[in-house]
Design goal:
- The structure is a single chain.
- By secondary structure, the chain is α+β, with helices and mostly antiparallel strands.
- The protein folds into two domains: about 10-70, Orthogonal Bundle (434 Repressor (Amino-terminal Domain)), CATH 1.10.260; about 95-190, Jelly Rolls (Sandwich), CATH 2.60.120.10.
- It contains five helices and ten strands, in the order H-H-H-H-H-E-E-E-E-E-E-E-E-E-E.
- The strands form two sheets. Strands 1-2-3-10-5-8 form a six-stranded antiparallel sheet, with no helix packed on it.
- The longest helix is centred in the N-terminal third of the chain and has 11 residues, at about 50-60.
- It is globular.
- Mean pLDDT is about 85; it is low at about 1-5.
């Protein structure tokens, strides 16, 4: 496996499909992902887009992080120490190939906290539907400049700045600059 190899989700999709007692055809109809594409994903012959992964996880009733994150091991006292190698960190990308998200957060925190290393190429945009009530996002720009919009308000976030905003409404993050941008994003659910 190379440093930027995607996680092997094909076997997980197949196992989940079998666990739900679905045929390839049934999951294809349920998810809107073609049967041939689904077969290629399960055999590890293609790297699915973010939209495809989203459709599959929604159809299987799981969170996207459940599909992408590896399990950890614990000692007899329930403690664990884990190092996730760079090449093992799940990365998903938008259909247009201009937005990349490396999933940094552990699976056991996904219900309350998620964090990502995000890269947006020039013209890249991450459009998000409303998250659950009370969800906040924190976006710290490391390189470049990003425009954040939630509702009718739009702010420009420059290097070193952090934007904090409600994410329980549709929102977008866009690179309107002339160079690629990189940011760390933390999503806190059910913040009151």
């Amino acid at each position: 496996m190379t440093r930027n190899s995607p996680p092997d989700i094909g076997l997980k999709i197949k196992a989940l499909r079998n666990e739900h007692k679905l045929t390839l055809d049934q999951l294809a109809k349920k998810s809107g992902v073609s049967k041939s594409m689904l077969s290629q994903i399960e055999r590890g012959l293609t790297n699915p887009t973010l939209a495809t992964v989203w459709s599959l996880t929604q159809s299987l009733g799981i969170n996207i992080a459940n599909l992408l994150v590896e399990a950890t091991t614990e000692d007899e006292k329930g403690r664990y120490l884990e190092v996730v190698k760079s090449h093992q960190t799940p990365e998903i990308q938008s259909a247009d190939g201009k937005c990349f998200l490396r999933i940094l957060g552990p699976i056991d925190h996904v219900a309350k906290t998620e964090w990502y290393d995000m890269r947006l190429e020039v013209g890249g945009i991450l459009e998000s539907e409303a998250h659950s009530d009370g969800t906040l996002e924190h976006l710290t720009v490391i390189e470049g400049e990003l425009a954040v919009e939630n509702g009718q308000q739009q702010l420009i976030v420059s290097v070193g700045d952090t934007a904090r905003y409600q994410a329980d409404t549709p929102h977008t993050i866009e690179n309107k600059g002339k160079i690629s941008a990189r940011a760390l994003m933390v999503v806190l659910s059910e913040v009151r």
